[in-house]
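Hi X.,

You mentioned you wanted examples for the new student's onboarding notes, showing what a folding record looks like when two proteins sit in one file. Here is a clean example. The first protein comes first, with its sequence line followed by its C-alpha cells.
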Amino acid sequence: MRQSVGGVRTGAAALRFLGARRRNKLGARRVPGLGGRMYDSQAERDYRAELELLLRAGAIMDLVEQPRLEIEPGVFYRPDFGFIEKGRPVYVDVKGYIDHRGRFPLICKLWRLHMGAVLRIVKRERRGRSFVVVKEILPEGAVR
C-alpha cells in the first residue's frame, strides 16, 4: 500500500499524521468503560459488563479481551472476548450489524474448519438492553 507520493503523505497515513481519526463505516463510536479502557462500541462495553457478572458468579473463567488467534497460517482474527465456559473455550464477537459480505463470512467458514472452540456472534436485542446469540459456530464434528 502506498503511503506517500513524492514525500507527501496520502490517505490514512496523512490523517494519522494530522491527528484525525478514521470514522467507523457503521457509525459506532469508541466509548470508555471500566478502568478507562476504550471499547469499539457501546454494545461491546455493555456486553463486557454482563460477562463481568458471569465471571463473579463463577459461570465463566479466564476472561480475555480481544485475544489474537491464528485460524490458519497467516490468517489472524481478533474476537471481542474469550473465556472458559463449562471447561471449553468460547470466543464472542459483539456485532451491531452483521455484514454478509467482506471478510467476516470467510472467517466463520475457516473457524468451523480449523478451530477447536466455539465462536458466538451476539447482538443487542431489538428495543432492549439484553443480548441474544445470533449465531454459534461450532468446530466441525462437535455436538452442542
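Then the second protein repeats the pattern, sequence line and then C-alpha cells:
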Amino acid sequence: MTDKFIDEETKYKRLERLNEKNREACLKSNERFVGKVLKVLVEGKTEKDGKITLNSRADNNKIVHFEDNTKNIGDFVNVKLYSNNKVKVPVVKMVAVQENQAGKFVYKLDENNIPKLVYIKTSGQTGDCWIVSEGVVKGDRIVTDGIQKVIPGQPITIVSPDEMQKIKKNEMTDEDKE
C-alpha cells in the first residue's frame, strides 16, 4: 500500500497512536529505575535559561538528564533517579502505608467513604512519599490520618485540616480534665 491511498488525517492519527504507545512502553520500562542510583557517564551539556543540564548514559544504555554545574563531559557520576512524570505515577505519603506479612498496603476510599485494604508495590521514594507502581492510581483517595481507627468496610468521616485541629485541641483539653 502506498501513501497516496492514506489521507493525511489518518496518517496523523496513526502516528499519534504509535507515539502514545511508545511513551507508555518507555514509562513502564523506566519505572523500575525510579528511586535507584545509577552510575552514568556525562556525554554532553545543554544550557538554557542559565541552567546547565548534563546529558549522560548509564551502563544499561539509558539516557539520564540532570542539573549539575560541577561535573564535566567524561566524568562518571552516581545519580539517583526520580520520575518527572507527574501525571501517571502515583505517590502516597509514607505515614499512610502500613505493612504486614503479605506486604505494603493502604486504605483506599470508595465513593461512599468506605475504606478498603489495598496492597501496593512501591518502586522508590521521593521526599516523604512512596512512588507506587501497582495497587493505586493517581486520583485515588487514601486515608492518611487516623489509620489506627480505620475498620475496613466501615464508613469514615472526612474532616478538613481545620476541623482536625479543633478535634485534637478538644482531645488534649479533655485529657487535661482527667
